[in-house]
Amino acid sequence: MLELKDVRKTFNPKTVNEKIALDGLNLRLEDGDFVTVIGGNGAGKSTMLNAIAGTWPVDSGSISIDGADITHLPEHRRAALLGRVFQDPMTGTAATMQIEENLALAARRGQRRTLKIGITRQEREAYREKLARLGLGLEDRMTAKVGLLSGGQRQALTLLMATLKKPKLLLLDEHTAALDPRTAQKVLELSEQIVTENNLMTLMVTHNMRDAIRYGNRLIMMNEGRVILDISGNEKKRLTVEMLMDAFAKASGEAFANDRILLS
Amino acid sequence: MNLTSLLNALPGAVAQGLIWGIMAIGVYITYKVLDLADLTVDGSMATGGAVCVMLMLSGCNVWLALACAMVAGMLAGLMTGVFHTAMGIPPILSGILTQLSLYSINLAVMGFKANQGINVTKYALIVSQRNVREINFSNPIFTSLIVLVLVIAVLYWFFGTELGSSLRATGANGAMSRAQGINTNVCKILGLMISNGIVALSSAMLSHYQGFVDVNMGRGAIVIGLAAVIISDVIFGKLFRNFALKLTGVAIGAVIYYIVLQVVLWLGLNTNLLKLLSALIVAVFLAVPHWKANMKGGRGRA
After folding, report:
1. Has residue B289 got a pLDDT over 90?
2. Three-class secondary structure of residue A221 per DSSP
3. Which of A30, A62, A7 has the alpha carbon at shortest distance from A226?
């Protein structure tokens, strides 16, 4: 269970660039919830994910996972509970390290790093199997540097890394936005498969309304740092893009403004 | 300009190159593995010698003195690491601050004298310039090679461990490392400590080799270290993929640097202009990736 209570975050306070990114955000996710997040530019979608991950401290409010308050935990300590895939394929992996080394780093998330060998033979076999299931042929390139992989391959690898050690919460931050449509589709399907298999509580930010409707059991829409729409169950299954646009106009009193959404 | 004088100078150049090669490996760890340019080394390259020589002059065992020199270097690295991580000072400035404070510390260690001699006939020095043309185990080239192999072996083992891997990850991608639960601040501090510990060991050996420690002997060490790293990159970059081989390449790079230096001196360059020459050569090589990126019209690393 994830609980955000009255979370606030202002960037560049008391300057001309002041931006209220999270404005008393409240959100509760139950175990197994797969929530898609949409919203206009600057609605606070990525900011919410970064607040949960601890990229920077929030100004006020509280964040808890399974009842444990993580509001003041540093980023690397929260990582034990979280799996993350970023928008930029470069961010989630270490380009100058091998595929298997990246996986070995991820397999030790939340553990003390000791002077034991960094990757064991048994691990290698386990990784080979898991990579084979991605269907990208990476199982034969385990000692290749990750920098040689394509964006889609890197996102698939990051997804595997994020879930190698089962997280309490999976954070997908527009993780297909930088990929071409066909690859994006593949990575999305892979995401759904991994989420379903492991019954993961997931927050997926997307700029694509159709994807937001197609995936997950619940959809939230954000505007000006708050959740303005929360649809789940059968109601979500009947959603259309037009209904979402209308709902947005009604809830916010303005037309939906996200250039990328309108184009897609 | 006769060739014999150059040939006579070569064993010395090789020995010095090997000792500075140990230092260059320290620079490699911060510059290449951690992706930090650490200027602490200009200070710790004198600290190690100062601590080692002063301890030995007061009757300390040579191995204990060497160990203490390394610990002193690690403390210098710790200082830079704390400046950078806990106090948020950019890495280059952190290194400069430590380097400057080390100047005073080194003088204090040396009893407020600019240099301190140590005589090879009275003290059990592990390397000495005096034996550089001997063909036996007392030759500094032999001892330096053994130390070099030990340093490379230990580092090769360490960077293959879980902890060592997390240091490499920190240098490769900080955001990813934190997302995978790695405390990148601790890793940076640890890397700076290891690096400066190695630099201090090299410093202690250099003071043994030349028979004295001088408060200025570390000046420009970072440039020599970078030169060795760059020479190794240019010559062995495509050839040496393995981490141990890369470290070996850096040591060879330092030897090449000292041989080239000897040749330039033999050709008649004024000794006082050497640092200018080194700096300019390193600047040009550092610029090469930037120029390449601009010519291709792609995104440069800089």
Report:
1. no
2. strand
3. A7
Task: Report the DSSP beta bridge partners of residue A171.
Answer: A84, A203
Residues of chain A found within 8 Å of residue B164, distances taken between Cβ atoms? 118
Of all residues in chain A, the one with the smallest CA distance to B179 is A79
Q: Check: CATH 3.40.50.720 for A2-81+167-263?
A: no
CA distance A96 to chain B (A): 6
**pLDDT tens digit sequence for B215-269:** 999 999 999 999 999 999 989 998 998 999 999 999 999 999 999 999 998 998 8
* B246 near A CB under 8 A: no
Residues of chain A with C-beta less than 8 angstroms from the C-beta of B184: 76
B285: confidence class by pLDDT, cuts 50, 70, 90: confident
In the block, tokens 């601790």 appear at B186
Task: For residue A111, list chain B residues with Cβ-Cβ distance below 8 A.
Answer: 181
Higher pLDDT, B144 or B278: B144
**pLDDT digit string, tens, across residues B54-110:** 999 999 999 999 999 999 999 999 999 999 999 999 999 999 999 999 999 999 999
Q: Using the beta-carbon criterion (under 8 Å), do B162 and A116 form an inter-chain contact? A: yes
Residue B163: partners with Cβ closer than 8 Å, 6 or more residues away: A113, A114, A115, B190
What is the ipTM, given to two decimal places? Answer: 0.92
C-beta atoms of A76 and B166 within 8 A: no
Give the number of other CB atoms < 10 A from CB of residue B34: 24
Q: Count CA within 13 A, CB hemisphere, residue A182.
A: 0
Name the pLDDT band for A255 (thresholds 50, 70, 90): low
Phi/psi of residue A161, nearest 5 degrees: -65, -40
Angle between the N-to-C axes of helices B140-158 and B3-28, in degrees from 0 to 180, rounded to the nearest 10? 20
**Rounded (5°) CA angle B107-B111-B114:** 50
Among candidate residues A160, A146, A208, A174, the one with its CA nearest the CA of residue A87: A174
Domain spans in chain A, listed from the N-terminal domain onward: 2-81+167-263
Shortest distance, CA B247 to any CA of chain A (angstroms)? 16
